[in-house]
Structures are given as C-alpha cells and as structure tokens.
Amino acid sequence: MNVLAEDGELWNDPQKAQDLMRERQSLEDQIAAIRRLTSSLDDGVGLIELGEEEGDEDVVKEAETSIRDLKSEIDARQIETMLSGEADKNDAYLEVHAGAGGTESQDWANMLLRMYTRWAEQRKFKVEVLELHDGEEAGIKSATLHIKGHNAYGWLKTESGVHRLVRISPYDSNARRHTSFASVWVYPVIDDSIEIEVSESDVRIDTYRASGSGGQHINTTDSAVRITHLATGIAVACQQERSQHKNRAKAWEMLRSRLYEVELQKREEAANATEASKSDIGWGHQIRSYVLQPYQLVKDLRTGVENTNPQGVLDGDLDEFMEASLSQRIDGGVGQVADLE
C-alpha cells in the first residue's frame, strides 16, 4: 500500500489516487485501533492479576469494568470487518420522504433527516444536501443527502424502509396523539469502474425551479433536474448546483446508483431467498418504531433491539440498531454478492 501511495504517477488518475489514499487511511485507523484495544485489554488483565495478588477488590472491579467497556467497541469493529459487500465501502445516497399526514409527517421526515445527519457527523463523514423540498407549514416533503465516508453505504444499507413516529403532535391544538410515517431509502454511490447503461429513451427528464431552504436564492431559472426511469418508476432529483448541466450530470449518477442498488437487492434475494424474505427492506416495509408518548421507546421491528432514550437516538445514536441489523444479515448468510455481469 505504501509503495503504491509513493508512486509518482499515482496522481495522474485523481480518482484512483483518492480511493487509494482513503483505503490507506482506513487500514491505518484499523491497525491503530487493534493495537490500542490489545494494549487496553492487556492492561486490564494485568490490573486484575495485580488486584488479586494484593487482595484489592476495588482494583479488580475497576479493571473488569474497563474490559467490559472494551467489548462494545470490539463488537463494532468486528461488524465493520464484515462489511464485505461489493458496494459496502462506497459513499451513500440517503433519501427521506414524508408519508401521508401533512405537516406532522413532514416534520417527522425533517427529524429523520437531522438524525442521519447527526449520525454521519459523529462518524466524521461529510454530508451534502443534494435536494430538499420544504413542507407547506413545517418540515420537509423530501430530501436527498450525499454521505461521504469509508463504509458509509455498508453501515446505512439496512436503514431503508418505513419509520413510524408516535407522539403528541405540536401541531394539534387539542394535544392528541398522532402516528406518522416517513420512508428512508439508501443506495450506494458507484464509481466509473461499475458500468450501468441507461439510454435517454428509457427516462423522462423534467426541469423545475429549485425549492427548499434558500432555494429562492439558488437561481431564478429552471436549473433543478428530476430524472424518472420509465421501466421501474425510480425517480431521482438534484438541485444542488446553479447549473442545470451540473444538476443533470449528478442526477444521472444518482439514477445509475439506484439501478445498481436494485441489482444488488436482486442478487441478494437470489443468493438466499428465505433470508431475504425475512430482511427485505423495500418501500412500504416498516422497520422501526419511535414512541415519544405515552412512553418513550425506540424499537427495531426486525431485530427486536430497543432503546428507552428516543432523544439520544434522534440525536444520531443509531449504531446499536445498525450493528444488530448487520449481524442479522451476516448470520443469515446474506453477505457479499456476485459481481455484476
């Protein structure tokens, strides 16, 4: 790896160079983490032996606590080493769409957008807003994020599905409890080495004026672009740039990524039809429930994982849910899929 990184001709291909440097940094981080965990474990074992020799129960308990604290991090690292799907290491696109229910559902969609943004920021991932449509009164109708970071797609891929919120609505003057739904869809950013052919005759391209927070300042022309794949109904949109040409190019990239993700799902189902039927994460499938009133609980309906601190979860503490979902898929044999033909 170091030899490749020091190759004087490496930066003749900037994309290849960036990918290599990112992989190098990831490997260095993993090696450093293993060394740190090993050292901490050795220290803990040494303290236990010392405490037992001297009959100091406090030292023994302190060391045992430190070792238990290491377990959760070791488990997370173990999960990450199993992110071996062909697109797991890639960046990710994440879409959020409000369900039926007007303002309440649109506010819920905005809460989910914030939750995933916070989660990504905690992992030092970069987040770009590619498309955002504000709700009529509050919240959002839809949004698309580009999340950049090693294994971003691998971590996020099990988050696709319908998320349900139960709370006393701040928009209901009678303070009644409401149930709201919003959909999340995650798909990988694909690089030039993966070829997905789509003809212009297979799509419908619409242009419109950008909307969303600050949208009126983005441009005064129809620069936003939406591309709809006619055969599947898959639609993507981008309004990030002032230039319609740049938004069109990004939308094409997003569409190819969506179609690639569909192919990945088909191959996973073919590899293990029974397990795929248990862990299907398509549209319309409810994966998690967030209850704020009359009690507080977040429950994943696939794995049974529960958390009684919804505010923490909504602030981005999602790792326990992601790890459980990934473990379920790995244990079920839904792992790396074959290369696209």
TrEMBL record:
Q: Name one Pfam family in it.
A: PCRF
What InterPro entries does the entry give?
PCRF (IPR005139), Pep_chain_release_fac_I (IPR000352), Pep_chain_release_fac_I_sf (IPR045853), PrfB (IPR004374)
Q: Which GO terms describe its cellular component?
A: cytoplasm
Record keyword Transferase present: no
Domain called Prokaryotic-type class I peptide chain release factors: residue spans: 209-225
What keywords appear on the UniProt entry? Answer: Coiled coil, Cytoplasm, Methylation, Protein biosynthesis
The compartments listed are: Cytoplasm
State the Gene Ontology terms under molecular function: translation release factor activity, codon specific
Alphabetized SMART domains for the sequence: PCRF
* Function recorded in the entry: Peptide chain release factor 2 directs the termination of translation in response to the peptide chain termination codons UGA and UAA.
Q: What is stated as this protein's family in its record?
A: Belongs to the prokaryotic/mitochondrial release factor family.
The name under which this protein is listed is Peptide chain release factor 2
Give the organism the record lists. Answer: Aquibium oceanicum
> Lineage of this protein's species?
Bacteria, Pseudomonadati, Pseudomonadota, Alphaproteobacteria, Hyphomicrobiales
The encoding gene is prfB
